[in-house]
Structures are given as structure tokens and as C-alpha cells.
Amino acid sequence: MTSFPVNTGRVWWMFALRGALMALFGVLAIILPGSSLQAVVTIFGVYAIVDGAVAVGFGYRNRTSMSRGTGWFGQGVVLAAFGLFAVIWPASVVAAILVIFGIFTALAGVSAIGFALRSRSVGAPHWIFLAALGVLAVVAGLVMVFAPLSSAVGFMRFFGFFALAGGMMLVGGGFRLRRFAARPE
């Protein structure tokens, strides 16, 4: 049996933090879709900056123990840059967010599926949650790219439910990763 990368068990909290921030963003997107879309975009920008920084940290910490650490690093840099753009120019982002975020969501889903398959190959019990999140992300991303929702309010509510579900899965996966890493071999 192949051993799980040591550093991955130490950074379980990064997955849980990403999930908590994602779920918080989901709740805000559901509650405030029409009346303050600009505020939701700004809140997303802050989320993206923090989430990107966490992904960069995960990629950096696992650069030697995981061959795919650079993927996390690159994803984090792109996400943080997009978040900064959203904070500075929220009105401009509203028009472009459907297609751009659809592409990001699909790519993040592919990354999650890849990590889930790696986790499964070493017997990690949380792989199914990561795979489910990945599939949801790919489907949602493709819908946003090829058939954007007709209204921004509809998109925000749709994405809010997606982010809430995905965030809960990441929090659960983070705590499962913590338990898995702590078990004796």
C-alpha cells in the first residue's frame, strides 16, 4: 500500500478553512443575490484572495512530497489575482463572471477529481467526497460556460447552493483527512 503524503495530513485545516469560506460565500450569495450583487462580488473577491493564498500555501508546503503541488500553487495564484480584480472593479466583474468563473469551476473540479483518485489509490476514506465535489464543479462550470443563466440573481442563487454544498464537503473532507492522517499504519 502506498503511503499518503505526510504533509497532506498536516494541512487538513487548509481544506476545512477553504470549505468554511466557501460555505459562507454560498450563504451570502443565497441571501443577497439581487439587492447587493456588487457586494456579493466584492465578498467573493475577498474569498478568492484568501482561498488562493491557502491554495498557494498548500502547493508550497507539498512541493516535494506531492508531484502535483505546482497545480495547487498555480490555481491559487490565478484565484487570488481574480479576487483582487473583483475587489477593485466589482461592477466590471458582474458581466464577465459567468463565463470566467465557469471555466475556473470546471478546472477546479478536474483538480478535485484528480486528488480524489490519488486519495483513493492510497485508501483514504474521504476520496468519494472530493470526487463528488469535483463532478459537481465540472458540471456547474460547463453549464456556466455553455448555457449561462439568464439572470445574475439566478446565477448567484444557483452558485450559492453549489458553494454551500461544496464548502460542507470540503470541511468534511478536511476533518476526514485529519482522522486518516492520524491513524497508525
Automatic annotation (TrEMBL):
> Which keywords belong to this entry?
Membrane, Transmembrane, Transmembrane helix
List the record's Gene Ontology CC terms alphabetically. plasma membrane
Q: Does the keyword Transmembrane helix apply?
A: yes
In terms of Pfam families, this protein maps to:
DUF308
Top-level taxon of origin = Bacteria
Residue stretches spanning the membrane: 12-32, 38-60, 72-89, 95-115, 127-149, 155-175
Looking up InterPro entries in the UniProt record yields: Acid_resist_chaperone_HdeD, DUF308_memb
Write the protein's name.
HdeD family acid-resistance protein
Per the UniProt record, the lineage of the source organism begins with: Bacteria, Bacillati, Actinomycetota, Actinomycetes, Nakamurellales
